[in-house]
Amino acid sequence: MSAQFQDVTLVHTSDVHLGSGYHCDEYLEKIVDVVQLSDVNGLLIAGDLFDHKEVSQQMVIDTFKKLGETNKPTVILPGNHDTLLTDSNFEFHLPSNIHILLKPEGESVLLADIGVNVWGKPVYDHTPAFRPLGETPNQTQGVWNIFMAHGMVVDSLENNLRSSPITIGDLTQADCDYVALGHVHAFRQILAGETIAYYPGTPSGIYEKTLIKVTFAAPKRVSVTRIDL
Ligand SMILES: [Mn+2]
């Protein structure tokens, strides 16, 4: 039987930068507190969960333990700082609710229990040549389709010097219900045709600390709520 199309609410965060001296690591707990709310069905982390590769093993253990304890589907897209996750030597027994999108060409995970399909292309090559929303898949029928993308939204590729560019054209053409962006440390809606795309900001910076609750209501209504931590 195929997955059922149903109402669902997800938390969308990014740029947690665990392990940086600049950000405060206790904000992972604040994220988890929101995910634990009874009306939340899952979590999307759109890149830069960890700040760098040399974070302590204990921090890695604690992070996945906390994310595992929610028992809610959690999808992690590695960003340019997540060299820990994209390193070929990274091995970790993940709790069963956690999915990391690691395939360089892009990868989907179907969360059949909540009727959501999530696709994303992890950052292995943070250069202007890497296109986080390049070669996106067709929609999976009967479920909500979400793309995750970690990069910088730009008007066009003409004279572009930014790494991991996401063009307005890429977003306009994105055949999905929501684009969960990451990389920019500020809450921001991106206007691109009919596409609904947001940066959630960072939950752990020294300025505004924000994340997003996004609700998908049948038949095709998507509403976004900014949460200030
Ligand atoms: Mn980034």
Provide a descriptive summary of the structure in words.
There is one protein chain. Helix content is 14%, strand content 31%. The chain is α/β, with parallel strands linked by helices. It has one domain: Purple Acid Phosphatase, chain A, domain 2 (4-Layer Sandwich), CATH 3.60.21.10. The protein has a six-stranded mixed beta sheet with strand order 4-3-2-1-13-14, covered by helices on one side. The longest helix is centred in the first third of the chain and has 13 residues. The model has no long low-confidence stretch (mean pLDDT 94). The site of manganese (II) ion has 7 residues, from loops.
Could you provide a short overview of the structure?
The chain is of the alpha/beta class and 229 residues long.
Biggest sheet overview: 6 strands, mixed
Biggest sheet, strands in spatial order?
Answer: 4-3-2-1-13-14
CATH class: Alpha Beta
CATH topology: Purple Acid Phosphatase, chain A, domain 2
Percent of residues in helices: 10-25%
- What is the approximate shape? globular
Q: What count of domains describes the coordinates?
A: 1
Structural class: alpha/beta
How widely separated are the two ends?
Answer: 40 Å
CATH architecture: 4-Layer Sandwich
Low-confidence stretches: none
Task: Report the mean per-residue pLDDT as an integer.
Answer: 94
Percentage of residues in DSSP E strands? 25-35%
Distinct compounds present: manganese (II) ion
Number of helices: 4
- Work out the radius of gyration: 16 Å
The helix/strand series, from N terminus to C terminus, equals: EHEHEHEEEEEEHEEEEE
Q: How many β-strand runs?
A: 14
Classified in CATH, the superfamily is Metallo-dependent phosphatases
